[in-house]
Design a protein that fits this description.
This protein has about 475 residues and is α+β, with helices and mostly antiparallel strands. The chain has 11 helices and 26 strands. About 40% of the residues are buried.
């Protein structure tokens, strides 16, 4: 990709003049103009954007001359309005732009502000009830200190009932108070019990649970993994060292709340599950016509250089929900040509595209980024295709065993009686699970406003 990029970089440099971001006389930083930021947006998308061929405004031939292009860019009141006008819908639901790339960088490494209560938001179509439920609680957080538990139901924030229209605003303050409720037979009853929670900067270890379960004369490994965060690849590899030492018979990977993350980490996790396919094709990354496609292979080393602890399995059970996305789906799709992947739960999000962070610099990397602003883009630049040519699963990956979470009985994560894990264990034993009511719709979750929500990104990208 690098050789082709040199040509496009040259075109970009000759097409646009770059303004100096500081005055050499006194080192005073001069904020970038909106036009300068918009130039960066158009250049980056013109070169990298996966759906560039589908967006006429990104075609050079659309404009008779530079003045016409400049007038087009100036017609937008902000960088954000320009960026989203250039996005190709409905195929692209995931590209985004940020005004502070440092916040994005922290999020990509698992750091954000949280009170530790990870929740989902629910609407019952039959009763009309809207409420939140606690999915899990992060250790050493306000929620953990206050005794918040999985399965708690709440329908108020700071005394205001949650609706589909106000929930983003209600949960945005650093401190807020939730009011609990009881949910039974589709009916919601408010309770007097309340908890006040405060957000602090926090770095989450995505390896939430790793344990073994003795079931039906088998030793089952269970991994609840909540994000493909490359900073924690060692911890993930350590979990597989534990499974290997325990000589497990089967493995259940719980990705029900895993919205994705690093492609490289997904690649490594697939190699941990298997090991017998080293050097075989994991996925092909398909770019726009500006670049050649790239292939990724099963390997035997994680990003830090450590040897991968492989289990050499021929079957794996994966728990999914509608919150399972991107790098999680990549894992499932890329393993299927090689081993049996038994998917238990509900249909996944449907994100098969990957992105990369583009900065306003000569080659769009962080090095020499324009210091006059902190805008960065995270556009989709590729789609993934598995070894069998499977891709474009816009509507998600459908489970083999369909069963939804029971909000009246969520169970304890990692315990054999938790309904989704129980369904996976029953399947491993040769028994069957049955679907629950489909009249429950999840319309929000605690991390949906974070920059990395349902994102799959390339963290080893060669700019």
């Amino acid at each position: 990709m690098k050789n082709k990029f040199a040509l496009f970089l040259l075109i970009g440099l000759t097409t646009f003049s770059f303004l100096s971001c500081f005055d050499d006389r006194d080192d005073e930083i001069i904020p970038s103009s909106t036009k300068e930021i918009q130039n960066f947006i158009w250049r980056g998308l013109n070169i990298y954007y996966l759906y560039k061929p589908n967006v006429p405004a990104l075609q050079r031939q659309t404009y008779a001359n530079e003045t016409e292009l400049d007038n087009f860019l100036k017609s937008f009141e902000s960088p954000e309005t320009l960026f989203y006008d250039l996005i190709y819908e409905p195929e692209d639901r995931f590209s985004f732009i940020v005004s502070d790339y440092e916040v994005l960088e922290d999020a990509l490494q698992g750091t954000s502000y949280t009170n530790g209560m990870e929740y989902g938001l629910i609407r019952n179509e039959d009763s009309g009830a809207i409420f939140g439920y606690v999915r899990y609680v992060l250790p050493n957080t306000t929620a953990a200190e206050k005794g918040i538990k999985r399965g708690m139901i709440f329908n108020r924030v700071d005394g205001i009932e949650i609706t589909a229209n106000n929930y983003r605003e209600l949960f945005s303050p650093y401190t807020y108070t939730i009011g609990l409720a009881n949910y039974e037979n589709g009916n919601l009853t408010p309770l007097d019990e309340e908890y006040t929670l405060t957000k602090y900067e926090y770095t989450e270890n995505p390896v939430y649970i790793r344990k073994t379960i003795d079931h039906a004369n088998k030793k089952i490994g269970y991994l609840m993994y909540n994000g493909f965060t490359s900073n924690y690849d060692n911890e993930l590899n350590d979990a597989f060292a534990y499974f290997k030492a325990e000589n497990i018979d089967d493995l259940v990977i719980d990705l029900r709340y895993n919205g994705g993350g690093s492609v490289e980490t997904s690649n490594d996790l697939a190699s941990m599950v298997t090991g017998q396919f080293n050097g075989e094709l994991f996925t092909t990354q398909v770019y726009n016509d500006n670049f050649e496609n790239e292939e990724r292979y099963f390997n035997n080393r994680i990003s830090t250089g450590g040897t991968i602890n492989s289990l050499n399995l021929n079957k794996v059970y994966v728990i999914t929900t509608g919150s399972t996305a991107s790098a999680s789906e990549l894992l499932i799709a890329s393993l299927r040509p090689y081993i049996d992947v038994i998917q238990v739960g509900t249909t996944t999000t449907g994100k098969y595209q990957g992105s990369v962070t583009l900065y306003d610099s000569p080659n769009f990397s962080r090095t020499n980024a324009n210091i006059g602003h902190k805008y960065a883009m995270q556009p989709l630049i590729l789609k993934t295709v598995n070894a069998n040519g499977f891709t474009d699963y816009f509507n998600g990956l459908t489970p083999n065993i369909e069963i939804g979470e029971d909000y009246e009985n969520l169970g304890i994560l990692g315990e054999p009686t938790e309904p989704l894990l129980q369904a996976a264990l029953n399947q491993a034993e040769g028994r069957f699970a049955y679907p629950l009511s489909d009249h429950i719709i999840e319309f929000g979750e605690s991390n949906e406003n974070t920059p990395t929500h349902q994102k799959m990104y390339i963290d080893d990208f060669d700019y």
